Amino acid sequence: MYLFYGMMKLPENGAIYIYEGIMARRRATKRKKRKKKWIKGAIRRPGALRAKAKRAGALGPDGKIKMSWLRAKAKGKDQTAKQARLAITMRSFKKKKKRKSGRKR
């Protein structure tokens, strides 16, 4: 609680009225820090989606899971849908390229 002073113009006669009051102070809520290793917690069953894709014949010649199969499986609320949505998200991440050791930037 803290004391505050304010000014208010009265509509009837236009006089300025100074008042004081007590107000509750809002508590500043701290934001939660983002986890740095969220992917580690998101992958619960490593290799499960790949095994399902292999059984369904959805692996391409390069060994990657076909995007059309992932998009079809991503619709829904079951475990496979969650895994497929995460796989689509992970596929969009870019890999860092290694720089040549002789060059400086």
What key phrases describe this protein's structure?
elongated; alpha+beta; 105 residues; 33% helix
In short:
The protein is an alpha+beta fold. The chain has a domain of 48 residues.
Biggest β-sheet description: 2 strands, antiparallel
Strand order of the largest sheet: 1-2
The N- to C-terminal Cα distance equals 55 Å
> Total number of β-strand segments?
2
Low-confidence runs of at least 5 consecutive residues:
none
The averaged pLDDT comes out at 80
Structural class designation: alpha+beta
Give an account of the 3D structure:
By secondary structure, this protein is α+β, with helices and mostly antiparallel strands. The protein has a domain at 45-92. The chain has helices at 38-42, 48-56, 67-73, 79-92; strands at residues 2-9, 16-23. Strands 1-2 form a two-stranded antiparallel ribbon. A hairpin with a 6-residue loop joins β1 (2-9) and β2. α3 crosses α4. It is elongated and about 85 Å long. The mean pLDDT is 80.
List the helices and strands and how they pair.
Elements: E1 2-9, E2 16-23, H1 38-42, H2 48-56, H3 67-73, H4 79-92
Antiparallel strand pairs: 1-2
Helix pairs in contact: 3-4
